[in-house]
Design brief:
8 strands; six-stranded antiparallel beta sheet; Arc Repressor Mutant, subunit A; alpha+beta; 275 residues
Length: 275
């Protein structure tokens, strides 16, 4: 008589969400909405400003800020009473940055890109408002103008920034626009209409161009990098002086930048959907 196979253990029933679970999720959402009020423009905010920007009632905003102060996410100035982001967030961000696969995996691709183009290569990640340049490669001993590693730069007027911003959710794009589009050079796109049209063009061609929009005499080409889930969270660029980065050179290098970004994306787990 054949031995009966042991029955597979039944999967535990999924526990329905309780009111406590829902309340916890709502609290986390409120915390995130407060953190998103701060930027390089809004470094310090009064309680009324936090309430207005987050859309939370003033008592709720005050209660959340007090709780976030306790865990180091928020700091408050003694004299003015204004609030700012806490050092604990910087510490956590530094840990996250150090553990990012992108830094390790992108390095050889950046080196190759810099050598083939004979220009500097930058790697940027998006923090929800701006771009943080986390790595840079130079061709030989050339001293190039532009961004330094760990330097924040605007998302709307740099190559690495536009390559990232173009592929974010509409509400993220509008949030960046809402902060204000400061004019850095005569070619900076300073109106919402012009920026939206430019981002649509970036999505269409697959790469962004910085035409001296952030710094005079600096031009670049940048392409988006996707993570394993397909989300654009980083970008890579070739940056050089305007006399070298002519229109013809940009046209010839654009496919190389796009190909490099795609290779990095695949290296960190992204699998493109077959056409």
């Amino acid at each position: 008589m054949p031995t009966a196979k042991p029955a597979k253990p039944a999967k535990p029933a999924k526990r329905p969400a309780t009111n406590e679970d829902k309340s916890r999720i709502q609290s986390i959402g409120k915390m995130v909405s407060i953190l998103e009020c701060f930027s390089s423009v809004n470094r310090q905010l009064q309680l009324a400003q936090v309430a207005s920007l987050s859309g939370l009632p003033r008592p709720t905003a005050h209660r959340m800020l007090a709780a976030m102060k306790e865990i180091g996410f928020i700091e408050q100035e003694a004299r003015s009473g204004s609030y700012g982001l806490g050092i604990r967030l910087f510490e956590l961000g530094s840990i996250a940055l150090a553990n990012m696969d992108i830094l390790r995996e992108a390095k050889p691709f950046m080196d190759r890109l810099s050598k083939l183009s004979d220009e500097s290569s930058h790697l940027g990640v998006f923090n929800g408002f701006e771009v943080i340049v986390v790595e840079r490669e130079e061709p030989g001993d050339r001293s190039a103008r532009g961004l330094r590693p760990s330097e924040n730069s605007p998302a709307y007027c740099t190559g690495v920034g536009k390559a990232l911003l173009a592929f974010q959710r509409p509400e993220v794009i509008e949030r960046v626009i809402g902060i204000g589009l400061k004019s850095y050079t005569p070619t900076t796109l300073c109106t919402p209409q012009a920026l939206r049209a430019e981002l649509a063009a970036v999505r269409e061609r697959g790469y962004a161009i910085d035409n001296e929009e952030h710094q005079i005499w600096v031009r670049c080409i940048a392409a988006p990098i996707r993570n394993a889930s397909g989300h654009v969270f980083a970008s890579i660029s070739i940056t050089g002086s305007a006399d070298r980065m002519t229109d013809a050179k940009i046209d010839s290098l654009a496919p190389l930048v796009v190909q490099t970004a795609a290779s990095i994306s695949r290296q960190i787990g992204y699998e493109p959907t077959p056409a």
